[in-house]
Structure to design on (696 residues):
C-alpha cells in the first residue's frame, strides 16, 4: 500500500504541474455550466423560486380564504414566495419590474359576487419572461375558482332538492370542500433539480470522465517513457503499481468534483443537497468513471489511442446519461439505455437527494458502485497483460 | 565472491527464441561486458536478470538470493539503468531521485550524495525535461545507484551522450567497481568495453557464444599482436636479429620494412627496438596493432557490433 501511495503521490505531483488538467477538470465544466445556466436557465424562468404578489381589494371571506388557505400555505411549504400588496397598481408594478413572477388581483365585490351566484373571477397578471411561473399562478387561481363553482352548485342543488340541512352544517360542509392548499408537497415535482444545479451537476459528471483519464492511462505513459521497466525492476509489487495508478484517478476525480460542487454553489447558486448524500454520489461516481476509463485504457496500445477512445466513450455515456439534456423524460428505449450510464444515476441520485433524505441516494450509489465493480474488475483483468513479466 | 549467478536462462516470444540457455557469473568488484549485435538478446537477458521479465527457464541468484522465489528481496540488491531514458520529465532531478529512493527505502542523504557523484547538484531543482541529453543520461545512471546495489546493470548507458558526460559515466562505473560493486554492462562502443570490462560475454542469436578476458578471447581465435617497422638498412640482417627475440613468433617483409607477429606487443617492443638500433639499422616508424574486441566480435558473429 505504501508503494501505491508513493506512485499516486508522484503522479499527482506531475498532474498538479499540468495546466491542461485544471482546464479539463475545473474550468471547462464550471464555465459550460455557467453558460448553459445563463442561456437555458432563464428561458424557462424556472431558475428561481416563484414570487407572487397578491392585491386583495375584496377583503371578504372568499378572498381571505384564497390568500390564507391557498397562497400562504403554499408559501409555508416553500413552493412559492408571497408578497401582499395594498393595490392592484403596486402588484402590476412588481410584475413589470420582475420582482414578482405573477400577481393575483382579487377584485372588490368578489365575495358578494360569489354569494349572489354571479360570475366571479380572480385575475392573474404574469411576467412575460416567466411563462412557467405564470402558468402555476393561473392554475392556483383556476383550481380555487373551480372548487368555488363546485361548492356553489352543490349547495344550490341541496337547497332546491328540499333536503333539510341546517345552514351551519351546510356552511361547514362547503368550507371543508374548499381547497386547503392547491400546491401541496409533491414528491415527484420536488425531485427535479433546478436549472443551475442541473447544468452544474451535468457538466461536472461529464468532465469527470475526462479528469480521471490521466491516472488510468498512466501505465501506458510509463511504458512509452521507459519508466515502467524501471518500476518493474524496483522492489515493488505490480499490483501496487496498478493500485497507484487507479488511486491517482480517484483522487483527481474526487478533488475536481469537490471543487466544482463548492464553486458552483458559491458562484452559481447551485443546490447540491445534503453533503453526506453528495459525498456518497461523488465517490461512487468517481469510482464508476475510473472503472470505465480504465477498461478503455487497458485495451488500448498507446496513451494517445486510449485518449481518443476515452473521449468517445465519455461523450457517448454523457449524452446517454443526461449530462446535456434530461434523457429521463425521453421515454422508451433511450430512457432504458440511459440507465447504463453512470451519469444518469448520478443526476437521478442528486434529484432523489433533493426530494428526500440521504437514504434516497442509495439506489443511485448502488448502481454506480456496481458499474465501478464490473468495469474495475474487467480493467484489472485486461491490465494484467500490460504488467505481465 | 560471486554476486550474480545466472544459469540456463531461456525466454521465448511466440516463435522466436530470444535467449537460449545463457549462463554466466559476475564476481564482487568485477565489470562484465555483455556484447552483441542488435536483436542478439542482450536486453532480454538483462530484463530477466533484473526481474522485469519472467524466465521461461533458468534461475538468477543475486548475492545468493533467488529471483524466482525471493523476487522483492533480490530486486533490492540490483540497480538498473535501462537503455531508454527512464525519467519523469515534469519532475526535477531531485524529485526523480527522491521518488525512486522512497521506492527502494533509501534516505535523502543518499539522494544528495548521488547527485554529487553524477555532477548534477547545481541543476537538481530544474525539471528533468530541461536537462541536456548528457545530463539526462547521468540522472538515468544516478537512479540506479541510489540504494547502493550489490549488482549494477547498465544497458548502454552512454548511447548518444556527449564526450564529457560519457567520460563522467565511465569514471563513475570504474569507481563503483573499485568499491566492490559487481557491474553488468552492455554497450555498442567497443572501446568502452575494452576500457571498463574485466571480462566480456559475446551473445548472438540468443546464445552466449564466447566469454573471457579480452586477451583470452583474442588468443582463442589465434589472433596476435603485430608490430610494423619502416626501416633503413640491411633488412635481411634485421629480420634474423628480430626473429631471435623470445616473444617474436614470425617476421615478414612489409613495404620498406618488416612486420612482426608477437605475443604481447607492448611487452616486447623495447627489446625489438633495442635489437635493431644496436646493429646499424635506422627505424623510420613503428606501428603496433593489437587485435581488439571488434576483431573478435567480427570473427565470432560475422557482424560489426553496431549492425
Amino acid at each position: 500500500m505504501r508503494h501505491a501511495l508513493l506512485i499516486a503521490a508522484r503522479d499527482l505531483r506531475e498532474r498538479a504541474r499540468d495546466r491542461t488538467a485544471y482546464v479539463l477538470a475545473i474550468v471547462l465544466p464550471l464555465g459550460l455550466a455557467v453558460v448553459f445556466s445563463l442561456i437555458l436557465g432563464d428561458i424557462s424562468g424556472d431558475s428561481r423560486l416563484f414570487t407572487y404578489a397578491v392585491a386583495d381589494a375584496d377583503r371578504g371571506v372568499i378572498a381571505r380564504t384564497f390568500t390564507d388557505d391557498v397562497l400562504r400555505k403554499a408559501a409555508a411549504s416553500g413552493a412559492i414566495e408571497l408578497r401582499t400588496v395594498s393595490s392592484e397598481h403596486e402588484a402590476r408594478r412588481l410584475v413589470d419590474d420582475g420582482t414578482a413572477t405573477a400577481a393575483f388581483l382579487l377584485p372588490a365585490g368578489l365575495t358578494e359576487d360569489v354569494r349572489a351566484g354571479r360570475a366571479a373571477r380572480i385575475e392573474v397578471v404574469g411576467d412575460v419572461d416567466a411563462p412557467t411561473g405564470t402558468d402555476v399562478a393561473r392554475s392556483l387561481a383556476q383550481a380555487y375558482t373551480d372548487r368555488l363553482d363546485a361548492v356553489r352548485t352543490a349547495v344550490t342543488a341541496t337547497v332546491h332538492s328540499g333536503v333539510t340541512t341546517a345552514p351551519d352544517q351546510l356552511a361547514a360542509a362547503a368550507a371543508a370542500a374548499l381547497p386547503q392548499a392547491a400546491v401541496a408537497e409533491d414528491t415527484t415535482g420536488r425531485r427535479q433539480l433546478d436549472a443551475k444545479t442541473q447544468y452544474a451537476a451535468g457538466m461536472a459528471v461529464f468532465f469527470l470522465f475526462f479528469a480521471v483519464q490521466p491516472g488510468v492511462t498512466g501505465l501506458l505513459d510509463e511504458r512509452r517513457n521507459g519508466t515502467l521497466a524501471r518500476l518493474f525492476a524496483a522492489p515493488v509489487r505490480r499490483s501496487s503499481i496498478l493500485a497507484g495508478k487507479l488511486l491517482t484517478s480517484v483522487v483527481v476525480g474526487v478533488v475536481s468534483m469537490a471543487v466544482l460542487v463548492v464553486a458552483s454553489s458559491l458562484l452559481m447558486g447551485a443546490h447540491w443537497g445534503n453533503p453526506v448524500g453528495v459525498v456518497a454520489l461523488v465517490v461512487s461516481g468517481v469510482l464508476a468513471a475510473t472503472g470505465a476509463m480504465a477498461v478503455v485504457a487497458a485495451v488500448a496500445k498507446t496513451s494517445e489511442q486510449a485518449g481518443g477512445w476515452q473521449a468517445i466513450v465519455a461523450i457517448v455515456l454523457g449524452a446517454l446519461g443526461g449530462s446535456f439534456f434530461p434523457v429521463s423524460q425521453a421515454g422508451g428505449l433511450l430512457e432504458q439505455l440511459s440507465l447504463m450510464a453512470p451519469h444518469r444515476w448520478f443526476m437521478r441520485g442528486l434529484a432523489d437527494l433533493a426530494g428526500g433524505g440521504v437514504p434516497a441516494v442509495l439506489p443511485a450509489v448502488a448502481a454506480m458502485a456496481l458499474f465501478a465493480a464490473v468495469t474495475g474488475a474487467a480493467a484489472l483483468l485486461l491490465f494484467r497483460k500490460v504488467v505481465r513479466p | 565472491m560471486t554476486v550474480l549467478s545466472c544459469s540456463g536462462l531461456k525466454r521465448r516470444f511466440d516463435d522466436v527464441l530470444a535467449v537460449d540457455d545463457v549462463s554466466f557469473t559476475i564476481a564482487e568488484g568485477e565489470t562484465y561486458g555483455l556484447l552483441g549485435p542488435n536483436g542478439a538478446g542482450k536486453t532480454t537477458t538483462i530484463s530477466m536478470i533484473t526481474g522485469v521479465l519472467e524466465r521461461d527457464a533458468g534461475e538468477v541468484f543475486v548475492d545468493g538470493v533467488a529471483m524466482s522465489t525471493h523476487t522483492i528481496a533480490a530486486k533490492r540488491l540490483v540497480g538498473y539503468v535501462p537503455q531508454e531514458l527512464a525519467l519523469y520529465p515534469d519532475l526535477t532531478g531531485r524529485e526523480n531521485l527522491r521518488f525512486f529512493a522512497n521506492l527502494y527505502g533509501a534516505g535523502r542523504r543518499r539522494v544528495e550524495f548521488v547527485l554529487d557523484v553524477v555532477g548534477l547538484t547545481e541543476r537538481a531543482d530544474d525539471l528533468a525535461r530541461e536537462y541536456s541529453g548528457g545530463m539526462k543520461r547521468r540522472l538515468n545512471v544516478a537512479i540506479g545507484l541510489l540504494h547502493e546495489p550489490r549488482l549494477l546493470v547498465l544497458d548502454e548507458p552512454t548511447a548518444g551522450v556527449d564526450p564529457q558526460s560519457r567520460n563522467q559515466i565511465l569514471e563513475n562505473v570504474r569507481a563503483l567497481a573499485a568499491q566492490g560493486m559487481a557491474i553488468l554492462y552492455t554497450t555498442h562502443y567497443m572501446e568502452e568495453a575494452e576500457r571498463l570490462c574485466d571480462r566480456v560475454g559475446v551473445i548472438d542469436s540468443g546464445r552466449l557464444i564466447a566469454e573471457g578476458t579480452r586477451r583470452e578471447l583474442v588468443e582463442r581465435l589465434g589472433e596476435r599482436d603485430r608490430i610494423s617497422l619502416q626501416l633503413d638498412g640491411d633488412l635481411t640482417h634485421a629480420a634474423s636479429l628480430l626473429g631471435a627475440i623470445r616473444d617474436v613468433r614470425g617476421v615478414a617483409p612489409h613495404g620498406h620494412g618488416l612486420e612482426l607477429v608477437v605475443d604481447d606487443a607492448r611487452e616486447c617492443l623495447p627489446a625489438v627496438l633495442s635489437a635493431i638500433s644496436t646493429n646499424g639499422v635506422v627505424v623510420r616508424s613503428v606501428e603496433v596493432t593489437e587485435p581488439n574486441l571488434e576483431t573478435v566480435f567480427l570473427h565470432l558473429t560475422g557482424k560489426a557490433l553496431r549492425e
In short: Chain B has eleven helices and 14 strands. The longest strand of chain B covers residues 2-13.
